[in-house]
Amino acid sequence: MSPLRISQPIRRIENVGLYFREWCVVIASVFLLSIAASSACALQEIQLRATASAEEIFVGEIINYQVEILNSKSPSSPDLTAIEELFDVVELGNESRNQSQVTFINGRVTQSSTLSHVYQFRLTPKHTGDLKIPAATATLNGQVLNSNEIAVRVQPPEEQDVVLVEIKMDQNKIYPTQPFVVTLAIWVQSLPGKDARTDPLRLLRRNPPHININWIELPPGLSANKQAEWLQPILAQDGIGFGLNDISTRTGSIFGGTQAAAFDLLKGRETRDGLDGTPIEYFKYELTRTFTAEKSETYTFGPAVVKGTFVAGVVRSEYQPKRIIAIAPAQSVEVRDVPSPRPVSFCGGIGDYRWVSSASPTKLRVGDPLTLTLEVERDAFSGSLDLISAPDLSAIPEIMDSFDLIDKNPTGRIEGTTKRFSYAMRPKRSNVRLPAVPITTFDPRTEQFVDVTTNAIALEVSEANRVQSGDLVGSIPMTNSSEIKLRSEGIFQNISDLSQLQDERIDLSWLGWIVAGTWFAAGSLMILLTIYRRKTSDLKWTRRQQARRAAKRRFDEARQALKATDTKEALKHVRAALLGFFADTQDCVLEGLTTTDVSDILSNTSVSEIDQKAVVKLLESIESAEYGAGLTDDPSAMIDSAAILVARMAPILERGK
Amino acid sequence: MLRAALIWIVLIVNSSFVAFAMEPGERERSFVKALELFDAAKSPDDYRDSAKILEAILASGYRNGTIYYNLGNAYFRTGEYGRAILNYRNSQPYRPRDPYLKANLQQAIAAAPGRLNERPTPWWNHVLFWTDWLAFPTKAKTCVGGFCLVAILALAANYFRSSILYWSSATILAVIIAIGIDFGIQYKHVVTTPRGVITGETIARKGTGNTYEAAFDQPLRDGAEFQVLSETTDWTFGHFEGIGDGWVRNEFVAR
Fold first, then answer.
1. Among A132, A154, A236, A257, which residue carries the largest CB count within 10 Å?
2. Beta carbons of B147 and A518 less than 8 Å apart
3. Residue B43 and residue A424: Cβ atoms within 8 Å?
4. What is the mean pLDDT of each run of 10 residues along chain A (657 residues)?
5. A504 vs B27: CB contact, 8 Å cut-off?
6. Which residue blocks in A458-566 are alpha helix, DSSP H?
């Protein structure tokens, strides 16, 4: 068996060596092929290929335009300057589509590879008619390349009164941080006949009409609530509604995937005049979003496009479908700066605010600290609280005359729709009050600055008493008493002693381990102590433990006697050592123990027969010598062999075996 | 041998308490900076800046009664009495005999617009009469040291077969168990912070939403202390002494 066990690893090592060589060859081949393939690609001509998603569209619709750069290892973004004259261009990103394929067939390796990089854009035509998407250009390896041109027909929207679209702004002129609402209103003609009260979109559930607007993503410079917060509440669970840009939801199907999201925008019914002036019943849908302008600029919303197949009439009791594209022209809102010059008391507020003042404490002594709090609350269409700065109290003579203003320009704290400014001050004299604070805000409706005043606050300021040692706040009295008389104002000062900074954390696991460890150690020691005591009180165990030492002592005495040439005495000690050893280990009486007894004892133990015979022979030799038969062996050798026998038997006999 | 074992235990117990204090002087520098800001403060916002530095020291999990005390002072100066009360209360387990802490806490409670009735002293505080004498870490050290001492005394009693030592270890064990119970009760308050405080005017509700009825006939104000019974991501359910239970939004709660 052993040669086989050795040969297997050798064979495995050989196999590994074989695989390693094969793989080296394969990897080297692939590497060389890659170099060859890339060289081959480099040799191929670099090309620009343009494709468009449609050849015929309505104005306001979009075209997905794609430019593919072939056979270039370092492609760069194409230049669409020529296209931008006819179309609005939005870049959608780019991706590498390089492909490389290596095939092994019967040891022959073939390799093919394609270098391709795709740039995608969204084009919105600016004009109607037969247009040509001009060539995109790119400069690659110092060479200017042009893509192919693409012909597109852009049709004007058909004049119709089935679907009407409009973008509405609640304000056309606003000021920074003022919110404004953009509404896309859509009117869809009611179904003819008895279904006039049914939502016309109900019939279009399988193929809902689609809205395309440019304010789904936040335009730069505007802020609004998050897209999910805005659209989630109007998501149509039953699928009846409008699709919106490319927003999709996850399907509930076990196969997963996504589907275009439908949004329920129904607001009610309305009657409007049709193309021929006759009143027509419409269902009205609205999509609204509130924006806040962060800076002065003009923002444009639209155009908005609604397209889909709608019911346009009835022929022989059957609804007549018609594909309709309705476009709402763009609307804009102008965000203006607050006019200058501005009053000194202008706090930065634009719109309506409610100001409330309060003071704490209102009952105090001259020189005591006092906090004046000014709270400003904005209404829903007013500018941000961030713009509002603390009113300058130092400009109010009555305050400066009566109070020592500690902080003239607090930063303020915003909580929800409220901002709070806290001024620290001290009254300079008794019988003063906090006067009304004048504040100026800007009213965007009238485009005028408006003055408001807070309420005046009555204070009870009494003269300060003569300062006594107990009145000092901020100094810790040198007393050991824990009885402290409370002052009506102020607190005791901070602790500044760095030595009190020790970490006072409690790590229970650490402490638990210490206690457990100590108890474990103490318990273990107690158990060992108990075991030791129990053993020491057992005479049989004690004799057995001392047997070897007693025998050794007698062997030493025997050697001493032998040195003194007293062979007889030496042999007596050897005999006593052996018999004592057996008596102690077997817990029997030493006196009267004979060689025969020892032989019997040993036969009941697991001591080897050779040792048994050796012991019996040794004892018999000693006994013979004692009785004058003379010694056949060297006494010194006898002592040594007796000691060796005892050492060899001790582990067996001490265990009582 | 007994002496050597005692020394060994004392060294280990102490090392467990100083093991955390190994960070370089960053904490001390921040502490001094907070003191300087406090001393130079002229407005509530300056005091708030000082408080922010102290909060940052505690943010790493470090606990110290002095920091809590100074933090309470900083919040008191900003006029945020609820937060001041909370920090004074947090400081109390570490500085139980500090009369200035007690005075400032009473001052903050008196100044807080939303103060409620004080929670009655629990009966076990009368039984465990030393609870306000010993600092929280001292109780922990005493418990650990005591338990270790009991183990050594029991071992010595066994070795020397001494009834005096047996009785001594049993007596010490009884005392340590009592201190341990006190420590356990306080540990719940110090570590799990079942108490909260209102930091701004808010209406307590009967459920976790603004659509639920108001729980009380008046809004709660800064400084109203309560016992936390339950909490969600946005709401905390608390027992307000003397008025009842209600849900409050977490933005108005400090713990």
1. A154
2. yes
3. yes
4. 35 44 55 51 74 84 88 86 88 84 72 84 87 90 88 86 92 86 94 86 88 87 87 88 87 65 92 90 93 86 88 84 88 88 86 87 78 86 84 87 80 81 83 89 88 88 55 39 46 81 85 91 91 81 86 92 87 90 86 86 87 89 76 80 90 76
5. no
6. 508-536, 539-563
- Among chain B residues, the shortest Cα distance to A505 is held by B63
Is the distance from CB of A324 to CB of A309 less than 8 angstroms? Answer: yes
Domain borders along chain B are: 24-111, 124-191, 195-254
Question: Which of A484, A503, A531, A532 should one mutate to test binding to chain B, selecting the residue with the greatest count of B CBs within 10 A?
Answer: A503
The DSSP line for A49-87 is: EEEES-SEEETT--EEEEEEEES-SS--PPB-HHHHTTE
Give the minimum alpha-carbon distance from B32 to chain A in angstroms, rounded to a whole number. 8
Spatial distance between the Cα atoms of A638 and A617, rounded to a whole number of angstroms: 11
| Nearest partner of A583 among A593, A573, A596, judged by Cα | A593
Give the pairing type, strands B225-231 and A150-155.
unpaired
Give all strands (DSSP E) within A341-459, no chain letters: 346-350, 353-360, 363-365, 370-378, 403-405, 413-415, 418-427, 433-434, 438-443, 448-453, 457-458
The residue in chain B having the minimum alpha-carbon distance to the alpha carbon of residue A498 is B28
Please check whether residue A411 is in contact with residue A444, taking contact to mean a CB–CB distance below 8 angstroms.
no
Judged on CB neighbours under 10 Å (0-12, 13-18, 19+), B209 is exposed
Residues A638, A622 contacting (CB under 8 angstroms):
yes
What counts of helices (H) and strands (E) characterise chain A? 10, 36
Q: To probe the interface with A, which of B66, B94, B115, B190 has the most A CB atoms within 10 Å?
A: B66
Q: What share of chain B is helix, strand, coil (3-state, %, to 5)?
A: 60, 10, 30
B173 CA: distance to closest CA in chain A (Å): 13
What chain B residue is nearest to A513 in terms of C-alpha separation? B144
- A289 vs A332: CA distance, rounded Å: 14
Q: Which CATH number fits domain B195-254: 2.60.120.200, 2.30.30.40, 3.40.50.620, 3.40.50.300?
A: 2.30.30.40
CB contact under 8 A, A486 and B19: no
Question: How far apart, in whole angstroms, are the C-alpha atoms of residue B108 and residue B79?
Answer: 9
- B16:A518 CB<8 A: no
Q: What is the pLDDT at residue A26? A: 53
Q: Is there a shared CATH topology between the B24-111 domain and the B195-254 domain?
A: no
- State the pTM of this model: 0.43
A505:B20 CB<8 A: yes
Q: Does B237 touch chain A (CB under 8 A)?
A: no
Of B44, B70, B140, the CB nearest to A494: B70
Contacts of B135 in chain A (CB under 8 A): 504
> Which of chain B's residues have a Cβ under 8 Å away from the Cβ of A482?
97, 99, 102
Report the C-alpha gap between B173 and A562 in whole angstroms: 64
Query: 3.40.190.10, 1.25.40.10, 2.40.40.20, 1.10.150.240: which CATH number matches B24-111?
Result: 1.25.40.10
Tens of pLDDT along chain B (255 residues) come to 445 555 555 555 454 444 444 355 788 888 889 998 888 888 888 899 999 999 999 988 888 999 999 999 999 988 899 999 999 999 999 999 888 898 889 888 888 888 888 878 888 878 888 888 889 889 999 999 999 999 999 999 988 888 899 899 999 999 999 999 988 888 877 777 688 999 988 999 999 888 898 898 888 989 999 989 998 989 999 999 888 899 999 999 998
Measured CA to CA, the distance from residue B224 to residue B230 in angstroms comes to 17
Does the beta carbon of B2 lie under 8 angstroms from any beta carbon of chain A?
Answer: no
